[in-house]
Amino acid sequence: MKVKICGITDLGTALQAVAFGADAIGFVFAKSKREIEPSAAGYIAKALPTNIEKIGVFVNESREKIEEIASQANLTMVQLHGDESPEFCDSLTLPVIKALSIGSEQDLEKIQLYSNHTILVDSPAGKYRGGNGTSFNWDLLSSARFSNQKIILAGGLHQENVARAIEIVKPYMVDVSSGVEYNGKKDLKKMKVFIETAKQSITQ
């Protein structure tokens, strides 16, 4: 099971996440308490192993701005949390993760529209588009078929529920931010336990 730690804002935490077994690091370039400057993200990204995905999170940003920040921050993928169309996703030069809010079975139909891209399924938007620490009904995804699309599960995951979530959804990757924080900061112990628990989970 692959694990993404999102909302990274400093090098030390990023290196610890990788040491614990994280496969991807997420940087937020949208309005958020975890927002980071592209130059700072680039500094962190350069210090990480080449096999680690460096993913930038954007919300309804212009194509030009995304490409500019992706270059500055040494990103390997972009994650789009806004109202971006399939055509917009197709126009970007880096691989795209399209985030979709899942609140009902009808929402699952949107996944097919983005068949060329990895899909991140998240809880409905709260104050921010993602990173709100709330989960959704995972059973909605338990019998869904995604035509071999890679599915990343996010939304309200933490060390106590991630194994169950993986069992139900069987995602390609799990994504966590607030679930490994204490008082709004990444907690190294929580991060370590989360990654270990996810890696040990049975997906079949």
Structural commentary:
- The protein has one domain: TIM Barrel (Alpha-Beta Barrel).
- Helices cover 32% and strands 20% of the residues.
- It has eight helices and ten strands.
- An eight-stranded parallel beta barrel has the order 1-2-3-4-5-6-7-8, surrounded by four helices. A two-stranded antiparallel ribbon has the order 9-10.
- Helix 2 crosses helix 3.
Low-confidence stretches: none
Tell me what the CATH architecture is.
Alpha-Beta Barrel
Structural class: alpha/beta
Q: Termini distance?
A: 11 Å
Number of helices: 8
Please count the beta strands (DSSP E, at least 2 residues each). 10
Domain unit count: 1
Helical proportion?
Answer: 25-40%
Secondary structure layout:
Elements: E1 2-5, H1 11-20, E2 24-28, H2 38-47, E3 53-58, H3 63-72, E4 77-80, H4 86-91, E5 96-101, H5 109-113, E6 118-122, H6 139-142, E7 151-153, H7 162-169, E8 173-176, E9 181-182, E10 185-186, H8 188-200
Parallel strand pairs: 1-2, 1-8, 2-3, 3-4, 4-5, 5-6, 6-7, 7-8
Antiparallel strand pairs: 9-10
Helix pairs in contact: 1-8, 2-3
Write a compact overview of the structure shown.
The protein has helices spanning about 10-20, 40-45, 65-70, 85-90, 110-115, 140, 160-170, 190-200; strands at about 1-5, 25-30, 55-60, 75-80, 95-100, 120, 150-155, 175, 180, 185. By secondary structure, it is of the alpha/beta class. The protein has a single domain, classed as Aldolase class I (TIM Barrel).
